[in-house]
Each structure stands twice: as structure tokens, then as C-alpha cells.
Amino acid sequence: MRRRMVGLVTAGVLAGVPLASAAAATWAEPTKQANAGDSISQGFGAAGIPFDDPAQSWVLGIDPAVSSMYLRYSAIEPGFEQEGESVTGAEMVGGEDNFPAQAARICAQSPLPTRVEVLLGSNDVCNRPRSWTTDAAANLYSVTTFTSALRAGLDQLAACLPPRSVVEVLSVPRVDYLYEAGRAKSWWCVWGVWPIAGICRVVTAESSASRRARIGQRIDAYNDAVAAEIAAYAANANGRNARGVGFVTDWVGSSAAGHANTSVGTFVFTKDDINGTDCFHPNVQGQSRLACVAWGASTEGAGVSSACFAR
Amino acid sequence: MKLACCTVLLSVLTAGCDSGQRSASSTSRDDEPIVVPPEPATSPVRADEILAPREGSLDLADYVATDVTLRLFGVELGDGSRPPSAVLADTTTWATRSYEEGALVGRGWRVDAIGPDVVRLRSSSGTTELRPGEDVRLRWVRHLDDRVARSLGRHRYVLSLRAARAAEEVVVVDPEIVEIYGRRAWRLPPLHERSLLAAAGFREGDLVVEVNGVEVDRGAPGALRSALLSGDAARVRVVRAGVPLVLRYVADAR
Lengths: 311, 254
Hints:
Chain A is an alpha/beta fold.
């Protein structure tokens, strides 16, 4: 199998891998990708119609307007294949389609992929009940719980993927930023669709900006945990990646730490990045921005650039 | 303006416009046949293994046990409006469930105590403690009527007709009909854990749009119950948290 030398260290790799090992790494040829994800990866509502629309997905899409990971890999690797496992409604932690379950399905694929893209976590926040205490994040999963589920998935991928395959775990979007974008998008969503459909009520029913920000801070903490875990797997510092699978993430730090618009988790969505149907999912432009970030942070990318977020 | 938009969406919804999900061009997963994997092996249950029998049923022939490994993902202390809970995952399927203190884990174990970073489980033969990330191997004891639906993931279920018929009926005198994305929907009320709908994977707040391709009306509660108990495959289109899903059921007549 041909090996691809990685000459550049991306921002994402920097976040996850010690510089020396990353610079020297060679990765397996990108022959096939799989993904673990939720409705965002399913392209839900991207074209304004309330259905899954994988053709518009940042990872699975075939619409050139999105320039998905699939299309980007296909451009450099003829015959590149994909087999998605994302499920609308999935969480990192909860339910029957969580990250460990999707990772198990990826490991059951034949042939196995050499690239795996992961974007989960929004539903872990949106599916939790609102808190009635001063801590708006009190009912969200603890970072420990979130991390346990992440490890359960990463352990499986580290054990099953071909050596030198690459797993990219994207940071969790700030649903409080999506709320702001949706509010700017349409009064109809705020007063009609969100309450009727019960869309992410932990933030959309929360009138206090500071309490919504507190929920965002928990998401930042999840993302810090993602980066720490990815670093540990990438360097096999935890002894869980003896077969040398690559692990990268886009997360380099929170907006509060000065990293706004450097990753999915710090991407400040605007009304132009979300659809007008549920005012909470990325539209084609939003999906294309996610694809840009994901590609930049991948082992084939050249780093996440400001162009991904340019208005 | 919005109504016009919804009219367009209505026609799209009616057409069942689910997009392809596999590779670049394949058909919807919603149209794929459901392949039911074999059940994990079960074994007979001894009377002393049953910590809490199902009401009115002490016949050991109605109980089975499965060897499972559970992993504690973590402890959720919450906002105090409800008791702390432990998130446990079955490492065979990785399905998770939250358990409060005192909750049964199957019928052979009970969550005895939940601390900030430790959970104690108790059976008739002793106790075991779990910390986040740790596994415990145990025998999962259940009554045959306990499990109405076996989830296969991706919103697919194998429905046990026997258990479904034994589940509590959801009595809805005046179903709340709302409109979402230009379609009529029945908003599900709070569901008791042992109700047929909760046990079949529905949740409070789900907006039921279609049952076997038929749009809902005020008779939706009866239509849904009939579909689930019919013994035939069933497809229920719901909007959950704003996102349309198709819940699919195949019946296990045993």
C-alpha cells in the first residue's frame, strides 16, 4: 500500500500530537472514509427541506457547492469510497446510536476505512432537560461521562482500523451560537418552530444570555477533553493505540481563550450559515465551512485558515 | 410567506423525500430491509437471582438471563430536581441508559448507591462497585414481558408482540394536534416508562406525523397502537427535536 508523507503539521495535528511525531508520521492511503455523526453530518435541512440530505453534508456530500471531505479525498485519490454511519439524533453518550455504537458499525465494515470523521455532541446538550438551579449546565452530561463515551469509541477504532489510518474528531459546535444565528434568521423559528418542534430547548427556551453562555462553557470543556484524549491516543500516551492509528482534532482552544473561528467548536455561526426551515442546522454555506475546517485540520489539509470563516 | 413555504414542504414530505445515505448515490436507509441479528444466548433463571419479580408473575419459565458487560460512563448529579443517576452502557450494543438510585438493572441487580465518582450495584448474592470507565460482568435477568422493543439502532426495532400486549396502554382522550413543517402531527404527552409507546422507543414531545403512510388525525393514538400490535411491519414518521425520523418496526411473534 502506498504511503502518504505528511509534510505539513496542521493546526489540528498540533492540537493533538506532539510536534516531532506528527511531522514524521506517514499515513495510510486514503482509500475509503467512514463517519460517525448526527443530523449535521446527515446534511439535515441544508437545502431548506426538512429531511436528511447527505448530498449536502460536510463529510458525505456530493454537491460541489459544499466541497465535502468525500469530494476532497476523491479529488486526490481516484476510486475513493465512503460508507457513512451517521444517524440523525445520535449523541456521543446516549442512546443506541451513540459514538461507541457507530464506531462498532465502522469496525464491521468491509473493507475497513482508512479515514474516519467524527462530529457528535450537539444532541448530548440539546437532549438534556433545562436546569432550574443557578447553574444552567447542571443537567448536562459531566465531562467524565462525555469522555468515557468518547474513549469507548476511540478504543474500538484504534483496535480495528488498518495501521496508520487516521481518525479526525471535530469539536462540538456551540449550540448557543446556533441559537443566536437562528434568532437573527427568523422570528418564525423563535416563536413557532423551536417551541412546537422542541428544538434544543436547553438553549432556545433559555432567556438569559449568561445562562446560555454557561452551556457553551460546558461545550468548551467537552472540546478540551476531546483535544486531551486525541493527544493521548495520537502519542499512545494512554497505551490505547499500540497499532499506530492517527488521531487529530480541529480544536485548539475556546473562543474565550482567543481562538474564535478557528474550529467547529468556536465557529460563530451567523444567519447566513443556517437554514430557514428549523433555523438550527447548517445550510449549504454552513456545511461548506465545516468541510473547510475539517479538511484543514486533517492530515491532508494545510491547516484551518481564516478563509473557512470569511464573510 | 411561511404558509406558502410550508405548502411546498408538505408536498415534499408527502412524497417521502428521504435522501440517499450510503456512498454517493445509493437509496435511503429507510428503505433497506431490516435484518434481525440473532439474540444473545439466554439461560434459565434461578429463583434466588430474581431481586424483584414482575407483578403477578413468579413462574420461572417466564424469566431468562443474558450475560452482559456493563460499563459505567459516569455519574450525573443534576440540578437536584431529580436524584443523581448513573450512565451505564451495555458493551455489546453500546446502548446506554441512565439509572437512578434504587433502579433495577434487569431484575437481578439494583443500583444501591450513587456517589460522585462511584456506583454500587447489589444483587441477591452481593454488591459490586464501579467507577467511571470500569466494566462489570453480570447476568441480566428479565421477564419475557419486560422488553417490548429490541433496538437495532438507526431507529429500527424488533417488537415483541407478547410484551407489547402486556404493556400499559397510553390513554389519550384528547390528542394534541399541532402543525409542523406544514403537516398535522400528534404531540405525544408524557409517557409512563412502562407504557407501550415509551417501551417502543417513543418520547414525550415526539410529533407523530404518519403511521404506515397515513397522516395522523384525532384517531392517531388508536392507529399507532393498532399498528404496533398488528404483527406486521410498521413505519412511523415522527418529528423529534425538530428533525423528521422514520421509526421502523418488525414483529417478533414469540
